[in-house]
Amino acid sequence: MKILVIICSTIFLILVLLFQSLSFESVNINELEAVFIYKFLSFVYWPKKQKNITLCVIDRTSLKDYLLSFNGYHLETQNLIIRTLPLNNINKPQLEKEINKCEVLIIDKSIKNIDNIISKIKDKKILTISNQQDFIKKGGIVEIFTKNNKLRFKINYSLAKKSGIRISSKVLRLAEQVL
Q1: Could you tell me which residues are beta bridge partners of residue 178?
Q2: Is the N or the C terminus of the chain less surrounded, counting Cβ atoms within 10 Å?
Q3: How far apart are CA 91 and CA 5, in angstroms?
Q4: What's the CA gap between 144 and 134, in Å, rounded?
Q5: Which domains can be identified in the chain, with CATH numbers?
Q6: Is the pTM of this model over 0.90?
Q7: What pLDDT was estimated at residue 24?
């Protein structure tokens, strides 16, 4: 088991370094972000061990189609299940019920009322990831962004820890900023 973790960690670090050195002229940014999210989840540990990790993405976001391609993939001993949440329910009580079924919530920068969504899930054990500027300052856990044509990320570690979500120290060292 230790060897598997070391191998996965090494592969993740190599991929992050590779992705940071790629020019975005040759790679679709949405595809790159989706691959990053998938690899990132291999280094996240939830308080309760479960068979499946449900990643929810709000419909009609730029990452949706790329993330759906990872449906059924494995994260160590867990399966990754991708669910889409309909955009037309974004302000309705039904959305909160649907979000409660998620371990990971992707909130694309195209979603206008991110603050409203964050307020509904702030006390839940849900890993939130977004490509919106200042996302971690608004109460999100992981913010993905580009800097000098390279993919970077920031982590609100204190919020993750408060939610019971553990993020590997190997990933924390690679973060541009850790709050």
Answers
A1: 155
A2: N
A3: 40
A4: 10
A5: 2-178 (3.40.50.2300)
A6: no
A7: 47
CB 130 within 8 A of CB 145: no
Pairwise CA distance, residues 125 & 153, whole Å = 20
Provide the residue count of the chain: 179
Dig out the tokens for 45 from the structure: 């540990």
Q: pLDDT tens digits for 48-59?
A: 778 899 999 987
CB 111 within 8 A of CB 117: yes
| Residues whose CB falls within 8 Å of the CB of residue 107, separated by 6 or more in sequence, listed in order | 58, 114, 117, 118, 128, 129, 130, 132, 135, 140
**How far, in Å, CA of 70 to CA of 123, rounded?**
27
| Contact by Cβ (8 Å): 26, 73 | no
Token couple for 49:
């061990």
